């Protein structure tokens, strides 16, 4: 199955099992206000954020979601380059986008996961770099005025030690990112500016 045409006739649907199909990132569900269970295991979904935004809009009662077997669900069964940490970040991001979920991929959502999603979920959509040592601080673009400077999170945290207050650390990180986004010439200039804070 590649299309869900005709599903709009079943607006009272509560459970929908769509496992083992060819559904991809063009998946469009009609408004299903009573749907509480949706399984999309073993499909061809790669764009997690798009899917979650769509589900948040059309399935407000969703409590059980399973995405195992899709590229969008990073685990070692689908991709040997993924590990348990990748899967934890995925769960955190999903729960940030769909906070009413009670089960994700057949695992009960814990209180700790829910709390972490509130604090860190928005930042979990970025893939973990393979190796910080191989990362570059920036990639040149056609115009130097449009250069975007990137520092991996691990290195960012390394230059912003926070022995006492996590809130203070968070402020430093946000200021650091704002300085880069507002056009500070490079990461070193942002570092110098931040040290005066």
TrEMBL record:
Keywords: Differentiation, Leucine-rich repeat, Repeat. The gene is Lrmda. InterPro entries: Leu-rich_rpt, LRMDA, LRR_dom_sf. Coiled coil: none annotated. One of its GO terms (biological process) is melanocyte differentiation. Required for melanocyte differentiation. It comes from the Eukaryota. Transmembrane segments: none annotated. This is Leucine-rich melanocyte differentiation-associated protein. It comes from Mus caroli. The keyword Glycoprotein does not apply. The keyword Glycosyltransferase does not apply.
């Amino acid at each position: 199955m590649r299309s869900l045409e005709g599903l709009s006739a079943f607006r009272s649907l509560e459970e929908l099992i769509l496992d083992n199909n060819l559904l991809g990132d063009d998946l469009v569900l009609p408004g299903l206000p009573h749907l509480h269970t949706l399984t999309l295991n073993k499909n061809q979904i790669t764009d997690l954020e798009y899917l979650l935004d769509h589900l948040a809009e059309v399935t407000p009662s969703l409590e059980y979601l399973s995405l195992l077997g899709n590229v969008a669900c990073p685990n070692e069964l689908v991709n040997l380059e993924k590990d348990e940490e990748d899967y934890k970040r995925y769960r955190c991001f999903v729960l940030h986008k769909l906070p009413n979920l009670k089960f994700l991929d057949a695992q009960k959502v814990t209180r700790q996961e829910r709390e972490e999603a509130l604090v860190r979920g928005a930042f979990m959509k970025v893939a973990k770099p393979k190796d910080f040592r191989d990362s570059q601080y920036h990639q040149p673009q056609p115009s130097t005025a449009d250069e975007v400077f990137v520092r991996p999170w691990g290195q960012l945290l390394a230059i912003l030690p926070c022995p006492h207050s996590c809130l203070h650390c968070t402020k430093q990180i946000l200021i650091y990112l704002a300085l880069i986004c507002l056009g500070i010439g490079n990461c070193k200039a942002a570092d110098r500016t931040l040290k005066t804070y």
